[in-house]
Design brief:
Strand content: 35-45%
Order of helices and strands: HEEEEEEEEEEEEEEEEEEEHEEEEEEE
Low-confidence stretches: 1-18
Distance between the termini: 76 Å
Number of strands: 26
Mean pLDDT: 87
Oligomer: single chain
CATH superfamily of the largest domain: Macroglobulin (MG2) domain
Structural class: mainly beta
């Protein structure tokens, strides 16, 4: 009988172990398969964002690999389609690319009436994939024969609205939740302001403030059955917005990206209900940027509602990475974004050497072995902000 129990236990152990290895391999294979065919990203810099319809519009573009962010040397042609505000095609261009860069422009005329225009850049190769990886830039064109009033920097206070971004997408009862928020007007202008979070009895739970872009955050511990609202009362605006409904349980992700020895610590936390719910269930934490990924398995079997996983950042990509939690059935439980600050890049400096009438001679130095640069030069105190 004892031998039978041991054999059965080993069968269960190796079955579970095999399933876990299979899941990690499936995740790795899925990422590899997704990036099996190299994909392109495009970024385009315009010389400014507002034009009169008798000016020259110029731009320079960069094509790079989505997998490793290196210049995409195989790209030869870029398609450009220009749409007006009614999404009607105004003009098309075929742009030649060399060593991952391209440039172009056009002379504006009466055909471009006042309004916003959308410049869409893409390659034919991008049409092979379901994701839209094209680059779209919005510019404004002014008819030289019409009166134009610059937009005020003052927000439209009457249309101010708050949007909430809970850490890992949900607010969980009984644990510390971090909630991001954004307050903007109908023109997407950020609003810098102070406010409070109150419960259903109008008791102040916590406070917050937003910056000039309208971004802010706050921390609080929600109670089951309670509801919470954002409240802003000032001379210019009155806002009252209810927070998303609390969840009985769930998993939230936070991290510390400022530890010594180049270590990233990721905290996975739940409440007491979640500890019981996730007992004996293996969860995989996946961190990836495009094709580069790293993963670890963990459980809540020790009854601790918070698990800490450490990662050496040398295996992670610089810039924005995604953190995802994958359950035993390969379903995504939650996700959030992480920014990895890489080593300092090669320094490039520019200075005006000679300024004569309407001409400027620039000199510069760079530590890069190979570099390609695009510059927008505009008069000081002008309203057409460069890109």
């Amino acid at each position: 009988m004892r031998l039978t129990i041991i054999i059965c236990s080993l069968v269960v152990f190796f079955s579970g172990f095999s399933q876990n290895i299979d899941n990690q391999q499936k995740i790795k294979s899925s990422i590899q398969n997704y990036f099996h065919f190299d994909r392109e990203n495009i970024h385009v810099q315009f010389n400014k964002k507002i034009y009169v319809n008798n000016e020259d519009l110029a731009f320079k573009g960069y094509v790079y690999s989505k997998d490793d962010s290196a210049p995409h040397l195989n790209t030869t042609n870029i398609q450009l389609i220009i749409y007006n505000q009614s999404r009607q095609i105004v003009q098309k261009q075929l742009l030649y690319t060399t060593l991952g860069t391209f440039e172009g422009g056009l002379h504006l005329n009466e055909k471009f009436t006042s309004g916003k225009y959308y410049f869409q850049f893409y390659t034919n190769w991008m049409n092979n994939f379901k994701e839209d990886d094209s680059f779209v830039e919005t510019i404004e064109i002014i008819n030289k024969s019409e009166t134009y009033n610059l937009e005020s920097n003052e927000p439209d206070w009457k249309t101010a609205k708050a949007t909430f971004f809970p850490e890992s997408n949900i607010i969980i009862n009984g644990i510390v939740n971090r909630v991001g928020l954004k307050i903007i007007d109908c023109n997407h202008k950020g609003i810098a302001i102070d406010g409070v979070i109150i419960d259903s009895k109008s008791n102040e739970v916590t406070s917050f403030k937003t910056n000039t872009m309208g971004n802010g955050d706050f921390y609080f511990i929600p109670i089951a059955g309670e509801t919470y609202s954002l409240k802003i009362h000032s001379e210019k605006v009155e806002i009252s917005e209810q927070l998303p409904k609390n969840h009985e349980t769930g998993i939230a992700i936070s991290y510390n990206n400022n530890l010594p020895n180049n270590i990233l610590a990721v905290a996975i936390k739940t409440n007491d209900v979640g500890v019981d719910l996730y007992q004996n269930k293996k969860v995989i934490l996946l961190i990836h940027q495009d094709g580069n990924s790293i993963q670890k398995e963990f459980t809540f079997n020790n009854k601790d509602p918070e698990q800490i996983l450490g990662f050496d950042k040398k295996y992670l990509s610089n810039g924005v990475n995604s953190i995802r939690l994958i359950d035993e059935d390969l379903n995504e439980v939650t996700e959030r974004l992480l920014y990895i600050y890489g080593r300092p890049k090669a320094t490039t400096t520019l200075e005006a050497k000679i300024i004569a009438n309407d001409s400027i001679v620039l000199t510069g130095k760079t530590e890069a072995n190979k570099a390609d640069i695009s510059i927008s030069v505009l008069p000081g105190n002008n309203a057409c902000v460069g890109h």
